[in-house]
Amino acid sequence: MTDTIQVPITAQPRRNIFQILELDTRLLGMIGAFILLCIGFDLLTDGRFLTPRNIFNLTIQTVSVAIMATGMVFVIVTRHIDLSVGALLATCSAIMAMTQTLVLPQWLGLGLDHSLTPWISMLVGLLAGTVIGAFNGWLIGYLTIPAFIVTLGGLLIWRNVAWYLTSGKTIGPLDNTFMKFGGINGTLGTTLSWVVGLLAVAAALYALWSSRHNKISHDFPVKPVWAEFTMGGIIAAAILGFIWTLNSYQIPVRRLERMFAAKGEEMPEGFTAAYGLPISVFLLIGVAVAMTMVANRTRLGRYIFATGGNPDAAELSGINTRMLTVKVFAMMGFLCALSAVVASARLTNHSNDIGTLDELRVIAAAVIGGTALAGGLGTIHGAILGALIMQSLQSGMAMVGVDAPFQNIVVGSVLILAVLIDIMYRKRTGATS
């Protein structure tokens, strides 16, 4: 007779709702802090902070910094820094403004509002930003000059190059089509905004289904079906709620009258219209999707995070880390030029102070969004949320009546606190960079 050995069955640890839904607790903390921030400012401003009008303005004010923050994620992940982004934005803005108002009229006879003027000027600006960014990357990657020194020098150089390009003058007005990328002057309207929102919901639900299907095909554990439906519902509600809020902001009657008068028409009595989704926000969404795809679905993204995690091991495994640095900074330069389009279009002109202190806002947005300064970790959506938190903080304090110097003190304190919380979080969770 043989004895049977009873093997004790270890009970599986109980998981809470956030673990079942596989939600990032750090991201949830940021979202929670953002919600509390908005509610607090709404109470302090007697309900003016969470109005459709202020939310609309908040989104278009966030776009230029958020676009650059997505590129700063890659720069910091690879253990570098870029202090020249604000100055580079100014140079690209100056190049595009001078192209529209001086170069094209004199060289090609193309004046403002010609159909080719905005596209040629944007192409020139984007090319200039990419080349300057690639040059920075070459200095850092191939000549091994520290990124801090290269970009600190670039901050001084490109800010003053922009000044000399315009002789210190404000250049404007800009092309009408060009200015549609600034926000208030270019929106999709209510109908097209709903179409974009529904397409975004469909794309998000497809991404959830595709991710689940891939996990099943590779025998990976998956969330319960109810959890998938819950996540899909949350995402759909967030997207459609955002579109509904923007569509609730009505165009002022006087502005509508001017719009009809410009067409030589008389506005019908009782006519109303809403702004809808700004083109600049739509552009940010496109950048966010593209950068997320690069980070998660491409060889370049894998190389970037591998190099940030361990540069020596990445180089020994065959990754050309020098050329990778050039690519990352070229991408950063391209995004600076794209932000210059949005920033100058929103202002309707190029001014000498455009992009001032944006380098600090961009770095702060990336760090607050969870990008580790030690390299190797960072997310695109986290950086965008960080930019939104920064802009909400500044806008809210301005609405409350806080002095500008104290606003900067608060923003600096929040940045330090965010880094401290991030360090404590990574120690507690065992996350490494």
Question: What's the arrangement of secondary structure elements?
Answer:
Elements: H1 17-20, H2 25-44, H3 52-77, H4 85-107, H5 117-141, H6 147-166, H7 176-179, H8 189-217, H9 225-247, H10 253-262, H11 279-297, H12 299-309, H13 311-316, H14 321-347, H15 358-368, H16 380-400, H17 404-429
Indicate the radius of gyration in whole angstroms: 24 Å
Task: Give the overall shape.
Answer: globular
Instruction: Compute the average pLDDT.
Output: 87
Order of helices and strands: HHHHHHHHHHHHHHHHH
Structural class: mainly alpha
Helix content: over 70%
State the assembly state of the protein chains.
single chain
The residue ranges in which pLDDT falls below 50 over 5 or more consecutive positions are none
Question: How many H/I helices?
Answer: 17
User: N- to C-terminal separation?
Assistant: 56 Å
Total E-strand runs: 0
* Main β sheet profile: none
